[in-house]
Amino acid sequence: MCGIVAYSGPKDASKILLEGLVALEYRGYDSAGLVTTHSGIFKAVGPVAELKKKVPESVGGSTGIAHTRWATHGVPSELNAHPHEDCGKTIALVHNGIIENYQELKSALQKAGHTFSSETDTEVIAHLYESYKTAGKTPKDAFLATLRELEGTYGIALIDRAHPDVVLVACMGSPIVIGIGDGEHFIASDPSAIVRHTKKVLYLNDGEVAIVTPRECQVMTLGAKKISRAPETIEWEVEEAKKGGHAHFMLKEIMEGPEVLRTSARGRLRPEEGDVKLGGLLSITHELKRIKRITIVGCGSAYYAGLVGKYMLEEYAGIATDIDVGSEFRYRGLPLEEGAAVLAVSQSGETADTLASIREAKRRGLLTLGIVNVVGSTIARETDAGVYNHAGPEIGVASTKAFLSQLEVLALLTIFLGRQRHLSDTEAKRIAKELASIPEKVEKILKNVEPIKRAAERLKGATNALYIGRKYNMPIALEGALKLKEVSYVHAEGYGAGEMKHGPIAMIEPSFPTVAIAPRDSVYAKMISNIEEIKARKGPVIAVATEGDTEIAKKADEVIHIPETHEMLTPILSVVPLQLLAYYVGVAKGYNVDRPRNLAKSVTVE
Ligand code: M6R
Predict the structure, then answer these.
(1) Chain Cα centroid distance, residue 358
(2) pTM
(3) Is residue 601 flagged as an active site residue?
(4) Segments of the chain with pLDDT less than 50
(5) Of 140, 199, 362, 601, which is the active-site residue?
């Protein structure tokens, strides 16, 4: 995520930049910085308010760039905060995205004599540009040559002090919008930072570059071919713009699912080789080979993601895995075993019980690992090694996109550990290829929300609901029920469908709906039997089933279809309609789904 804002015009740039950063803070808030062509760089760790304290009333300069950071490479610190400069400090730039080949570029630049001052991938862009400028290229050519060397994703705004009214801008997989004013231009990673100034905008497409001055905005390809496109008018107001035009952050974050899945796998998943590269685990490759048992800890949705991970790791990595909620694990008399590791799953990286579990595991001398979204958070720092989600900030209290990313990272980890053990080449390729196509499949679900809305109509009047699933989708039944409870206050329980006859079936009657997650997998026939049993007792059934399954439509009252995939990956698809279902029910009941009552995004107390 991260937020970019830049300005070129007649006014005091620093004021416009600070205002823009405040509007963009929802995209990331671990550090922020700004610079104008006439100032030094100002940086601060923490929210934009911290940066404001450091920026004087009059900075000078009417061209500038600014950034609010959501760390991906390097902990949140002033050194790692943007803008970043070259050795000669003649240019500065801000960047969103991930430069995948930064290590190679950095080594080559260091050999050529460049000195780096941060741990970020971004800084290579500044030094590359510098090297082309030193070789005699114009700013435009140096910028284009730099971009052609980058692999990965970027939204970039760069200023060169030798050309004080120019901002060089580029877009590749990380959005950039240019706002057109009267004798001024505003640049941002999304319209929320500029709608207060202008509604006339030009969105850059991937592979496009813009050279922006107060009066001109020249758009071109990476090959310097001119592009002319008429600007569009945005209708959003400031608050709507932050939510990308969606009514709530929860909906925006569900809709971001495909993008998040792509980002979490980028540079890691190698479908053709049936392998996975996890940089965060490199330092402990040998210890990982010796692991005999993994205990996963997490709370709430993170625990349910871990529960899916248990099924994955046991079936495909061949590692005995158990799981506990943080609040139980920390008080368990965990026997010390050689070859045991504890894996914490946490979006925030700050959940008190999960953190306490990691500390307890360390005290007992166990290897500790993390799957964490917030870079530099306490769990990320205190675990021996781990994998970041790169899902961007999650604002909605109900976890949605982070949960998807947790499932994906657990699948990546399963392939990684499986390949160290007995997972066959063929099976690994099968899983990896399916994983690579998962974002498109999620997109397909998100394009057809009508059946989910119909299901929500059925659920909104209920006071209770049951969610059932088996094997990989048993945890998704628990997660679906939790989502519904959190945002719609309908009491819901998740159960392994096999447990129906041991109690819950007593509740079934015409006013008690069941959501049955029944993709075509190895337990499909058993799920169908459970659905029959519910129908025999006149219970309404909403089924989540595989596309093309016409049989289930004869039994269930409402069917929501998901594309076919590898059994191990079905939870990544089946949870999406359940997130939307909870969302629509919550909204239909008039609740603020982004801030459910009694809940906090990060539970930092026991
Ligand atoms: O930040 P964490 O992933 O450690 O948070 C864990 C839970 O508090 C969190 O998943 C919670 O259950 C969400 N509200 C679920 O939507």
Answers:
(1) 23
(2) 0.80
(3) yes
(4) none
(5) 601
